[in-house]
Amino acid sequence: MKVKKISAANIEPRDLSKLLDKEKIDFQLIQCVNWEEYPYKPRVSFRIAHTKDSVLLHFKVTEASVRARYGQDNGAVWTDSCVEFFAIPAGDGIYYNIECNCIGTILIGAGATREGREHAPEDVTALVKRWSSLGDEPFEERVADTDWEVALIVPYAVFFKHQITSLDGKEIKANFYKCGDELQTPHFLSWNPIKIEKPDFHRPDFFGTLEFEPEQNI
Fold first, then answer.
1. Torsion angle of C-alpha atoms 111, 12, 189, 81, degrees rounded to 10
2. E runs forming strands in 71-216
3. Is the pLDDT confidence value at 91 over 90?
4. What is the pLDDT of residues 140-199, one digit of tens each?
5. Claim: this prediction has a pTM higher than 0.85
6. Residues 6+ apart with CB under 8 A from 13
7. Could you tell me the pLDDT band of residue 206, with boundaries at 50, 70 and 90?
8. How deeply is 215 buried, as exposed, middle or buried, from its count of CB atoms within 10 A (0-12, 13-18, 19+)?
9. What is the spatial distance between Cα 6 and Cα 20, in angstroms, rounded to a whole number?
10. Number of H helices, E strands in the chain
11. How many Å is the maximal CA-CA distance in the chain?
12. To which H or E segment does residue 213 belong?
């Protein structure tokens, strides 16, 4: 999948949707139900672009219930209504998991496998600008059909195990997910399929490919 470069600066996350509309960035579906015992499939889509210093992410979700118990970064946000971006930004096999619940609380980890992952320090998670349509106050599960969106501006400095200054022209492996481990209807959706027996998003061997386009000179 191609990731367009946008020549915009000082973007605020609440304005990201309008910017991506203007740039004609299409939504992609997160709709792979990989495990029969978890058949529930909320409506989930995302779009992605990049600038000279950041990755831009916009997720839209419609699901039967929502929860945002965690309001502090690096908490167990995957148990809430959660969207996720996993990526290998360099060629060394280290992948980052960037997980965000429906109020914009994030978790960031890095490592080569599921075991022994290193959480990003607070000063790194604080670099991620975020906006949520549901606000930023934690709440317990609300059982009702709910639409929500989150927008994230992820500076390259968030890839704290590397010194990444540009993704122009790079081809990286990545996957996008939607989960809610402790919701009344747990679910585990992915963008690229995961062909294993039990739910596990920490499988870089099933990542898809993102092609980060260089800036177009017109």
1. 100
2. 82-88, 95-101, 106-111, 118-119, 129-132, 139-155, 171-179, 188-190, 208-212
3. no
4. 999 999 999 999 999 999 999 999 999 999 999 999 999 999 999 999 999 999 999 999
5. yes
6. 129, 130, 131, 151, 152, 153
7. very high
8. middle
9. 9
10. 2, 14
11. 51
12. none
- Residue 123's φ and ψ, nearest 5 degrees, are -70, -20
**What is the CATH classification number for the domain harbouring 119?**
2.60.40.1190
Identify any residues that bridge with 117 across adjacent strands, giving them in sequence order.
none
Give ∠ CA 35-39-40 in degrees, rounded to 5: 135
Residue 218 lies in a domain: no
Confidence (pLDDT) at 9:
86
Domain encompassing residue 29: 1-191+200-210
Give domain status of residue 216, yes or no.
no
Number of domains observed in the structure of the chain: 1
Find the mean pLDDT for residues 96-116.
98
Assign 124 to helix, strand or coil.
Answer: helix
Q: In the structure encoding, which two tokens stand for residue 142, read together?
A: 């609300």
Q: What would the pLDDT profile of 94-103 be if each residue is shown by its tens digit? A: 999 999 999 9
Q: How far apart are CA 153 and CA 49, in angstroms?
A: 10
Per the structure block, which two tokens stand in for 214?
């260089």
* Tokens standing for residue 73: 């970064």
